[in-house]
């Protein structure tokens, strides 16, 4: 009887669902939300308020009746502003009519892009450590995940190892620049080498640039699609979430050639129809008027990074390099002599600080913890103090 019930329940689900798992980060966020007195360094959600002018723009748009469906590609005025931004800041000449799509956050941009270009059996090379969701997007499209393990402590994009992973079935290489969780920023030289491999072997590059503005030490930034001949072969994903502290607004965008864009729009129309027009108006205000707020937030992240890296390096068993970008630190905790999941578990239980084990980001993340600096300096220093106290008891 029970066996028949289990069988019937299993039959209700598609094989697609069974092939994917809930992101380990999502699971941890749910667990920490239920645990009292924990300092959460696990989630990549900026603690800053969304800039006031963005909120005002959304209110005004609602009053003006921006409350209906829009074209699935997004409001023309937002796409035009994005085209200007892409040209000025990223050196990407994208046509707002045919090459830019506004999406429900970076998530829907990525989901739609994978569904558009990946066929069952296609191989997708993912530079790791990497944000775990790329694996999910690959599996949901029937693709095969091919991890490219990068090396600590700086995790540079190792083109030699990448070459070894390329086969006839390689359809796409995913890079996240700056990288979540390592904070590595890939420079023009590494990206040019990647571009020449893309040219030689005919694969696509998916460049996830959602942390493009959160960069420290005046490190220069380069978008893959700006490199010669790469515009046609690159799908660039970006979002308002991290840059403007707008994670809950769910506005992102994707830039790709005309043919891929038309596929992305078709998929996105089934996923979401369109992004809320009032929030698209808010995103427009963010691009036009929030440079100062962004600079302030980035300065604050940089200060937090400096303070916390120094404090962590004072704790025996921790070794932390200064990441060049993002809102994450990725300290080496191998000296604990435990898998990273065990270290994260103990720190959660004994020090009441939530982090993400490096293994969640692929095997090359093992031996590390991801700690988000998306909370106040006071909270961050208190978290480090708790961890130091716990380490003393070992
Ligand atoms: C690397 C990376 N890409 C994309 C996203 C998606 O963000 P959103 O859908 O909020 O734009 C995230 C969120 O954490 C991320 O870390």
Please indicate the percent range of residues in DSSP E strands (runs of 2 or more): 5-15%
Ligand catalogue: pyridoxal-5'-phosphate
What's the number of domains?
Answer: 2
Helix/strand/pairing category: alpha/beta
CATH superfamily of the largest domain: Type I PLP-dependent aspartate aminotransferase-like (Major domain)
Give the ordered list of helices and strands.
HHHEHHEHEHEHEHEEEHHHEHEEEH
Distance between the termini: 50 Å
- Report the count of strand segments: 12
Q: Can you count the helices?
A: 14
The strands making up the biggest β-sheet line up spatially as: 2-8-7-6-5-3-4
Average pLDDT for all residues: 94
CATH class of the largest domain: Alpha Beta
CATH domain fold name of the largest domain: Aspartate Aminotransferase, domain 2
How would you characterize the largest beta sheet? 7 strands, mixed
Note poorly predicted spans. none
Name of the CATH architecture of the largest domain: 3-Layer(aba) Sandwich
Structure write-up:
With 394 residues, the chain is of the alpha/beta class. It has two domains: 15-49 and 292-392, Aspartate Aminotransferase, domain 1 (Alpha-Beta Complex); 52-289, 3-Layer(aba) Sandwich (Aspartate Aminotransferase, domain 2). Helices cover 44% and strands 13% of the residues. It has helices at 2-12, 15-19, 24-33, 52-63, 76-90, 105-117, 133-140, 159-165, 188-201, 258-271, 277-289, 291-313, 340-351, 377-392; strands at residues 39-40, 100-103, 123-128, 144-149, 170-176, 204-208, 234-239, 252-255, 328-329, 353-354, 356-357, 369-372. A seven-stranded mixed β-sheet has the order 2-8-7-6-5-3-4, with helices on both faces. Strands 9-12-11 form a three-stranded antiparallel β-sheet, with helices on one face. Helix 5 (76-90) packs parallel to helix 11, helix 6 (105-117) runs parallel beside helix 7 and helix 12 (291-313) runs parallel beside helix 14. It is globular and about 60 Å long. The structure holds pyridoxal-5'-phosphate. Pyridoxal-5'-phosphate (PLP) binds next to helix 6. The site of pyridoxal-5'-phosphate has 13 residues, from helix 6.
